[in-house]
């Protein structure tokens, strides 16, 4: 197990290296000039052209891209992720400042998804074709189809404007106001979690149906085991393996969804920060944010792989 | 649920990215523009929470070039020598009065007892320090002090500024230039200390800015609220929902087409105010020879622009159609007649010009639906005359590159409100006069109109320049754009001036 884990860890290094090259090159290949973005339309004034050039030099954009990359990597290795072109603040602190909000949002969404996907997915599988099953499948279709932007606004209109139960938006750190934090988390977490819940439910239901028809389940039944033991110990554990993979991948995808949810609910996190940085062509900030998210996702996949090895001993041997 | 569906919207783009850069145009010379700002009388107290479409980039007033910085900090926390009064006249802010012994000399006397929020008195030497710092920072603000030849601090309350050349819009250029002391400048990036009606409390990037009342502000009854918070809400629809839930009690800027339908909604107050901001199509790009070199072709495509349809669709019938660049309520405005919607006439003009099968592409900006919709209506009109126009929607950064380098056939653009025509001449016309618009008379007028303080003379020169502008059509003006704010019905004193600045110093919440 230790060797397996060590090998999988080492394999993440080239992944992260390639991500760093790609993000560095891609953002620079995209048309658009950070200096012009900073100066705005005033850059069009003939007398401002030299200022634009000076700004480009100040931003280090006059050097060839490979040279810029080497400078960047040299600094990154020393823990210096550079300053934002837009605000001149260190990109690392900008990113870390926003990270807790996004982690909380993703954790909340995942928790919500797991809490409803597991019971409902299993019940639907066990009562295939029943009213409950059809209701669950209806939820799955709706959950996969509904745009999160729309769902978010609909929830706000219902729970904030009509019923006045929940605050419409905003983020308060948990440490400052735990109650306010959780109240504000509720709607964005649900909105973000619906898609994951629907996906998990679908897979869990399908897997359970398949597993419940498997020989070893019939054997277990024949042994006279209680139904609950069969479901939990024999069926569920096996049905879980594919679901685990999906969960690992989809929780990563939640970060993409968070970009929109964060803006709808004024939940100021890294998704919003990154998209803004891309539109601003704030190269250093984009690089830092994407690099960290990539490392995060790689670690997430690593964790899933290791869990896999744990759940399924066959994989450790190869 | 991917990143691809995320986009910045118009409000955020307007507020950020400096696209609109500086609204502070110049009001020339001594007269004022005849549009009164919309305004409601106010009492004191309460807390105001305002939704803004985008965040600021820095706390430093000499560095930030964003329009939203003006709304959030420049005119709340900081003070300048002069600010706009009613009808865009100048009133002293830190300056109690000023004299002009000759056309190139200004002597400002500072208000007695004015202090910064840290208790330090405002001194005349800080004016020199601030303007020199602005010049050094090499931002768009530096061009406003570029004509200053020298400073003389006469005493702690008096400073004499001399200019190299006569500059009609000098005083106006000072409106957005905040005054700070050298001590404040050292820590300005973390502590915004000014002398304005509000004190800075905190800025959480991408989230909110909080300000509180400056008890020792020199003007009685200002500000109207004890606490002022700006919350960053990028999507207009989300901001409106927040307003209805009373999470915020005002929204800085909402597209008119989204604001107008809310007039029948008793939950919100709608304020739609005419401004001198204009939406335009620029025609002198490098990529299309026929349009660039032949004025008849430009006139032909102007005949295909159905302005009535655009006004109804894009602006809910609001705003004023015109063909020139000067604000329609400005003394220098000349209502030059333009080109009626007449595709048949366009066909005839094209034939005269010997151009057939004209096809070109119009660039618009992603997140600015106003531009796309205007272009679509134009496209239909052009098709009537057998002209094919393609519309390409570009991300702001890409659009900006093409705009600056003139790499387009035709490009849609929006200019922020401005008072003095010289603002548009410098920023909108000069780039074309240097590249594409060959008209010696226009080039001469563009300079000379700002080099005299005589209003009659300026009116005449700008009048002629406007005639040449409409005749040669370097730029096709669509119309003036109104600006809309939304607020809760219990909010009073909200003000949008004719430049589109939202001013909240007098706002109260009952």
Short structural summary:
Chain A has 318 residues and is an all-alpha fold.
Give an account of the 3D structure.
The complex is a heterodimer of chains A (318) and B (510). The model of chain A has no long low-confidence stretch (mean pLDDT 86). Chain A is globular and about 85 Å long. The relative contact order of chain A is 0.14. Chain A is mainly α and 318 residues long. Chain A is 78% helix and 0% strand. Chain A is built from 13 helices and no strands. Chain B has 510 residues and is α+β, with helices and mostly antiparallel strands. Helix content of chain B is 29%, strand content 22%. Chain B has 16 helices and 22 strands. In chain B, the strands form six sheets. A seven-stranded mixed sheet of chain B has the order 8-9-10-1-11-18-12, sandwiched between helices. Chain B has a five-stranded mixed sheet with strand order 15-14-16-13-17. In chain B, strands 4-5-7-6 form a four-stranded antiparallel sheet, with helices on one face. The model of chain B is unreliable at 1-43 (pLDDT under 50). The chains are: A mainly alpha (318), B alpha+beta (510).
> Mean of the pLDDT scores of chain A?
86
Helix content of chain B: 25-40%
Order of helices and strands of chain A: HHHHHHHHHHHHH
The radius of gyration computed from the alpha-carbon positions of chain A, rounded to a whole number of angstroms, is 24 Å
How is the secondary structure organized here?
The complex is a heterodimer of chains A (318) and B (510).
Chain A: H1 2-29, H2 34-39, H3 49-58, H4 65-77, H5 91-126, H6 131-145, H7 148-162, H8 178-212, H9 215-222, H10 227-264, H11 270-280, H12 283-311, H13 314-317
Chain B: H1 10-15, E1 47-52, H2 67-74, E2 82-84, E3 90-92, E4 95-102, E5 105-110, H3 124-137, E6 148-155, E7 158-163, H4 170-173, H5 182-186, E8 198-204, E9 208-213, E10 227-232, H6 236-244, E11 250-254, H7 256-259, E12 269-273, E13 278-282, H8 289-293, H9 295-302, H10 307-315, H11 343-353, E14 359-365, H12 369-384, E15 388-394, H13 396-405, E16 410-415, H14 421-434, H15 440-448, H16 455-472, E17 475-480, E18 483-487, E19 491-492, E20 495-496, E21 502-503, E22 508-509
Parallel strand pairs in B: 1-10, 1-11, 14-15, 14-16
Antiparallel strand pairs in B: 2-3, 4-5, 5-7, 6-7, 8-9, 9-10, 11-18, 12-18, 13-16, 13-17, 19-22, 20-21
